[in-house]
Amino acid sequence: MSDTQVVTRFAPSPTGYLHIGGARTALFNWLYARGRGGKFLLRIEDTDRARSTPEATEAILKGLTWLGLDWDGDPISQFERRDRHAAVARQMLADGTAYKCFSTPEEIAAWREANPRQPFQSPWRDATDLPDRPYAIRLRAPRDGETVIDDAVQGQVRVANDQLDDMIILRSDGTPTYMLAVVVDDHDMGVTHVIRGDDHLTNTFRQVQIFDAMGWPRPVFAHIPLIHGEDGKKLSKRHGAVGLHEFAALGYPPAAMRNYLARLGWSHGDDELFDDAQARDWFDLPGIGRAPARLDFKKLEHVSGHHIGAMADADLLAALDDFLSETGAPALTQRQRDRVAAALPALKEKAKTLPQLLDQARFALIDRPVEMDEKASKSLDTVSRGMLSTLTAAVQHVSWTRDELEGAAKRVAEENGVGLGKLAAPLRAALAGRTTTPSVFDMMTALGREESLARLQDQTELAG
């Protein structure tokens, strides 16, 4: 396939939110295609009409967009292609690679009860005297030998053909089955590589038989291990967040999620932290391991902290806007935006998540009068307020830079015979209403001269 353009696809069923495992599958397909100048297609497998909902489809599209994965062309609805699927089933019937089966559900159940360890064998496979009544169309699967798949992750996998039944490809009501629809869609969409969870491996044995029956080239299959929780068990709600929207609400930036999910089951040497360009250049199927990956929230926080620290301030501010919108919190006012923007260079090195960043930026989000917590109130007594009064006078006319402000504070502390820490505690309280904050001088530069002096003045007026 070296001369063929790479085409991958992500094909979720719209029956709920986008699971973290589905997000990783989409990412792997996106990286593989984008790294080779190929196409990444999106197909909504909405043939289960009872469970498929427009809301779930919208949630999937929103999740992929949030993650930063773009797709080529419009999303394809599998349900809308049902006539094409049925036409292929009838073509297979005409070609002799499929046959009419008139067995009723009751007859099939009775056969399976009598033959509990065997796949169903239809009595109609080679029948010539056919009744005039509704029928299903079954694949005429090979009975002898093996079906072999050269999987790009799992290696060569095989199953004895006598372990597989002649599966139904078109039901008696004329609706195509999922197994047929997937194969027809992959062929018609020109998919060259099917990268999906290894829970689909048993489906693949059946699907390649349809490819072979139609004389269509098989795509390259790559079945990736599932994601487990930190306890090594299959990921479920008991492990915490499992939906991509939940990770968004926890405040992990999309760039961090892309980095972390790429490393979840795939490796490139010892590289843990990388950007999108590196991921596209490096990603390849041999780097995917066969063992299940484990979700590790501590590692995710580490990756997230790295990306927050590395983000341009404008991008980080935009990420905060998206996070607030995602969680339904009020948007930043222009004054808050200006203050937070000024504070970001000092704040982003320590924050692991966007909520942590907002918590550190709380001093920039609040308005006067600053509300004190209990510990902050204890640091503001008559003596400390007197020092703040002296500091207020000392910084009235200095250049409003971090170095100048720190120098003035050191001089005031020395004049009062105390260390800088004794002055910093009440200054911290006056500016933020808390005892745990960023550097007092970083806060003063972010707040600006007017607001900083006003907050100090509010406290010094209480000195008497």
Automatic annotation (TrEMBL):
UniProt record, GO biological process: glutamyl-tRNA aminoacylation
One term under GO cellular component: cytosol
Catalytic activity, reaction form: tRNA(Glu) + L-glutamate + ATP = L-glutamyl-tRNA(Glu) + AMP + diphosphate
Record bears the keyword Protein biosynthesis: yes
UniProt-annotated location(s): Cytoplasm
Annotated GO MF terms: ATP binding; glutamate-tRNA ligase activity; tRNA binding; zinc ion binding
Top-rank taxon, per record: Bacteria
InterPro entries with a match to the protein in the record: aa-tRNA-synth_I_cd-bd (IPR045462), aa-tRNA-synth_I_codon-bd_sub2 (IPR020751), aa-tRNA-synth_I_CS (IPR001412), aa_tRNA-synth_I_cd-bd_sf (IPR008925), Glu-tRNA-ligase_bac/mito (IPR004527), Glu/Gln-tRNA-synth (IPR000924), Glu/Gln-tRNA-synth_Ib_cat-dom (IPR020058), GluQ/Sye (IPR049940)
Residues annotated to bind ATP: 237
Domain Glutamyl/glutaminyl-tRNA synthetase class Ib catalytic: 5-300
Principal cellular location given in the protein's record: cytoplasm
Motif segment ('KMSKS' region): 234-238
Motif residue range(s): 'HIGH' region: 12-22
Matching SUPFAM superfamilies: An anticodon-binding domain of class I aminoacyl-tRNA synthetases (SSF48163), Nucleotidylyl transferase (SSF52374)
Key word Nucleotide-binding present: yes
Enzyme class at the top of the EC tree: ligase
UniProt-listed Gene3D superfamilies: 1.10.10.350, HUPs
Domain Aminoacyl-tRNA synthetase class I anticodon-binding: 322-458
Keyword terms, alphabetized: Aminoacyl-tRNA synthetase, ATP-binding, Cytoplasm, Ligase, Nucleotide-binding, Protein biosynthesis
PANTHER family per record: GLUTAMATE--TRNA LIGASE (PTHR43311), GLUTAMATE--TRNA LIGASE, MITOCHONDRIAL-RELATED (PTHR43311:SF2)
Family, per entry: Belongs to the class-I aminoacyl-tRNA synthetase family. Glutamate--tRNA ligase type 1 subfamily.
Quaternary structure (record): Monomer.
Stated role: Catalyzes the attachment of glutamate to tRNA(Glu) in a two-step reaction: glutamate is first activated by ATP to form Glu-AMP and then transferred to the acceptor end of tRNA(Glu).
Protein name as annotated: Glutamate--tRNA ligase
Organism: Paracoccus haematequi
